[in-house]
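Morning. Coffee machine broken again, so started the prediction first thing and wrote up yesterday's gels while waiting. Chain of 209 residues, entered below exactly as on the submission form.
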Amino acid sequence: MMKLLLLEDDQILSETLQLFLTREEYHVDVALTMEEAEDLCYENKYDLYLFDINLPEGSGLELLKNLRHAEDHTPTIFITALTDMHSMSQGFELDAIDYIKKPFDPQELLIRLKAKFKNGTLYLGEIAYDKEAQTLHKDGKLIDIGNVQYKIFTKLLENAGRVINTDELYECLEHPSNTALRVAITKIKQRLEIDIKNIRGKGYIIEKV
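Came back before lunch.
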């Protein structure tokens, strides 16, 4: 389930979008002010931000700029009634992935979301695994963890919440052994700063986020 943060000061619109997207199996947190959004960003990890640009106390552009300076590279779509090229240019300079102009049908937003994430990207906190491109990103930056570690990590991630037995993980190793597997998993945990649990006598598991 993708976790979204919606910043929209129009309470009716925000509630409508939250209800609609929740029915489509998205988890949606709502902020009505920039301050609320900023607090939620620092307290939680999101797969996507939906930010209104024109807000009573400032601009969604300002908030995203501050987040980018804080090394937050979460994909962002702007919701706006503004059509000037300067605002659009600012948004894309901050690595926004799309715009949607008011007024709009919630179905249009859903279509855009599915189009942007149609490659089946899997998320673990700030880590994004693009199954189609076979790449890993953390905080928006490409990460190379080596072929063996990549195979082990992606197998665990694709089966998050389920224990993968050691024999199955041995298939990812060039020279299978319990020691080699333990070393590889330790390196993954250190490199990606994640928790992989060892279930004694059974295997390993990444808990669902």
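The two ends are 9 Å apart (CA to CA). Going to sketch it on the whiteboard this afternoon.
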